[in-house]
Write a structure and sequence with these properties.
single chain, alpha/beta, Ubiquitin-like (UB roll), Rossmann fold, 3 domains, 3-stranded mixed sheet, 8 helices, 24% strand, elongated
Length: 273
């Protein structure tokens, strides 16, 4: 028997060759070279932390490092800057910041602050950011009143979507704004604004729009004259009326009403003589 055969038949040589063959298999090689050392390290860490004193020391050091991190000057918000058009809105926005300054910027949810700012009726759009110098900046674009809404004896300022912004002190205080009234008139403000725009040629004669039966509009002119508009396509009806006005000066005559509800004909009601 040769020397090589005797060596192979010895136990340690056979085990060595088998181990080398195992290392040639990729997943076994990864398990032995990486998985086994990782398991040993994790086991040692678990055993070490199983002693309460070691765990408390680690916990204390981790808390100290975390506190040092969050107290870094670059992460501190020390001031509040609000960009708003009036003092009341300024105060409403300032009240949204519940945290007492200075505060760590990581504890502030800017998206939640923006949503709260836009939930204020007077705010159309808001942006929230942390600017240079550690300032929390809230910028609000205020909704603008487009129409006065008369609800019974009460007057309200509303925007182009029909959202009520605030009570109006009087009609005279907002004479430049068009007036709408009637049940659910505030829900059809976009249509009302289109009607006012179509009748801009006789703007000085218009007193307002009245919602009739929650279905359609009456255009009220000076002298208690009325233009009865159809429930469907009222803007087109006003455009036809403006053509008549331009050709025949219809609205400059003495009349009680103009009925446009039937698009096939225009009915003019004149005062009795």
């Amino acid at each position: 028997m040769s020397t090589v055969t005797k060596a192979y038949e010895s136990g340690w040589i056979r085990h060595y060759i088998r181990f080398q063959r195992i290392l040639l298999t990729p997943h076994w090689r990864r398990l032995i070279l990486f998985g086994l050392p990782s398991l040993i390290c994790v086991s040692a860490l678990v055993i070490s932390l199983s002693y309460s004193d070691n765990f408390k020391i680690l916990q204390t050091k981790a808390a100290a490092h975390f506190n040092q991190f969050i107290s870094h000057p670059d992460l501190q918000v020390s001031g509040l800057r609000i960009v708003a058009s009036n003092e009341k809105l300024h105060a409403d926005l300032a009240s949204l910041v519940e945290a007492k300054l200075p505060v760590n910027s990581l504890s502030l949810d800017l998206d939640v602050l923006r949503q709260k700012a836009e939930a204020i009726p007077a705010v159309k759009e808001a942006t929230v950011s942390i600017d240079t110098g550690g300032f929390l900046t809230i910028t609000a674009i205020e909704r603008q009143a487009s129409v006065i809404f008369r609800d019974g004896q009460n007057l309200f300022l509303i925007d182009e979507t029909g959202l009520i912004l605030s009570p109006a002190t009087s009609r005279a205080a907002h004479i430049a704004l068009p007036l709408v009234s009637g049940q659910d008139a505030d829900k059809f403000v976009p249509e009302a604004l289109e009607i006012f725009a179509a009748a801009s040629a006789v703007r000085d004669s218009i007193r307002g729009l009245v919602r009739v039966g929650t279905r359609r509009w009456d255009l009220i002119l000076d002298g208690d004259r009325r233009v009865l508009l159809p429930a469907k396509r009222p803007v087109e009806a006003v455009q036809r009326l403006m053509i008549l006005e331009n050709v025949e000066l219809l609205l400059q005559r003495k009349l009680i009403s103009v009925d446009l509800r039937d698009r096939r004909r225009t009915v003019v009601r004149l005062p009795q003589t």
